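Supplementary Text 2. Reproducibility record for the structural model of the 383-residue chain.

All settings were left at their defaults, and a single model was retained for analysis rather than an ensemble. We include the record here because the model underlies the residue-level annotations in Supplementary Table 4.
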Amino acid sequence: MPAGVSMPRFSPDQIAFAHSLTGPLDRARALEFLKTLDIRHSVGHWSAGDFYDRFAPVGYHSDDAKFGNTFEGQCRRTKAAGIDAIEIHQSVFEKTLNGDIDWPALERAKSGFLAELGMTVPACNINTWTNPIFRLGGPCNPDPALRRAALDEILKAVEIAKALKIPVISVWPGSDGADYHFQIDYLQSMEWFTEALVTVNKACLAADIKLAIEPKPYEPRELFMIVPTAASAILVAKRVNEACGGNNCGLTVDYGHQKMEGTTASTACDLAAYAGVEIHKFDINDARQGRNDQDLIFGTISIPESVDYLFTTFVRNYRGYYSQDQFTYRDDPTRAMERSMINFANLALKAVRIYAKKAELDRARAAGTGPDVLDLISPILIG
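Retained model, structure tokens:
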């Protein structure tokens, strides 16, 4: 999200189109709205797959013989939901978990079902937590050999991104952090994490790929994760950029992670803008404030907060993807992805209408009272 960009996020024609829409948007009109306003929507491949937890380790859809949990199956379910962009992990194209890159499988996907479905891959995420060798961490593992192995996993993502022309690599350090007090030297771990990202960012710069850091307060680590807040991720990104030059390293902001943090995705967005750090990707879902990472369907908990978040991203001129990162364990993932997309479009429409009234909102904010702002906003939120 480049700081200081003066070009409006939406043209007068796009604003006029948004104002022409009436009533809740159904699937067809939601897709038309997103396309017309160039609001990009994607899905993490895991959101289109089977879901596992400690209560159903075999998978919630394991009793359905027709449920193919392959990447191709995930792509076909995503397309059936009306969405034509899907994110991956680097492990999707490995011969074995954290093994060699499976170049034939990548080529089959690229020239086969991805091309057939007209699907793009806007981001490659990193998995350095499923493999038990990383149980004590990836880039921050106490074993230097495993820190190097985790770095190699991220560098594999660079090679995969080059082959598939993926513009963003996003690092969520799922196994890095602590479960107990005194367990790690946090400063040392932050230095290890930053050193790894400097190496990755140099490779990304050479390949014209953006690098993003995704913060999360905790889970699966129980005390804290290595970048537990948006502010900590911004700090690391700035250190990486200082070491490499430029502003290539930025953030992935997950809506639900900010709810866990006790803040909001909109404040994370503005904090990054204040620090001069770009946001390369937003993950959308929903969650209750201060709870675990619930990854619910977007727009199901707090409509005002969701609209405020989208409005802020529009004001800051974000033009990247909003990607579903949701775990709808007991539901048909295609139906859940479709519903999330429709909710997203309807709430984005409200945010666009508020965006069109920003001058009025600024005047109401200058008055400093809740009712002055709500007199303007509430009719849009509840209309």
